[in-house]
Specification:
Strand content: 5-15%
CATH topology of the largest domain: Arc Repressor Mutant, subunit A
Number of domains: 2
Structural class: mainly alpha
Strand order of the largest sheet: 1-2
CATH class of the largest domain: Mainly Alpha
Number of helices: 6
Shape: elongated
Distance between the termini: 41 Å
Length: 115
């Protein structure tokens, strides 16, 4: 099996999970065009990649144990230029505004929540 086919299968599984369309293990295996035994190997591979997926027997579908989705791609180490940085909201000015805002009674807790 090629890496591209694996990537497409994982992305499709992610789509099925996020839309609550996986169904039972047998149904999900069929949707992914895998045998049941290969499907369980596929799930183990996902867990080795730290993807928090589990079967919910009450709802009869797979779901993530944390909010999120699977993303493939490339992350550049290049620094942002001045124009790109000016488009970012937040940072020091946002932090300073949070510190001076009188409506926030517990500033340390509020700051920790932003980190």
């Amino acid at each position: 099996m090629s890496s591209l086919k694996d990537k497409e299968r994982i992305e499709y599984f992610d789509y099925l999970v996020r839309h609550r369309m996986t169904g039972t293990p047998a149904q999900c295996a069929e949707k992914l065009k895998l045998s049941r035994s290969r499907f369980y190997e596929f799930l183990e591979d996902l867990k080795l990649m730290n993807i928090p997926v589990a079967y919910n027997p009450e709802k009869k579908h797979y779901e993530y144990q944390a909010e999120g989705k699977i993303v493939f791609g490339f992350v550049s180490d290049e620094k942002l230029n001045e124009n790109e940085m000016s488009k970012i909201k937040g940072g020091f000015c946002f932090y300073r505004k949070m510190l001076t805002c009188p409506e926030i009674p517990d500033i340390p807790t509020r700051i920790l929540a932003l980190v």
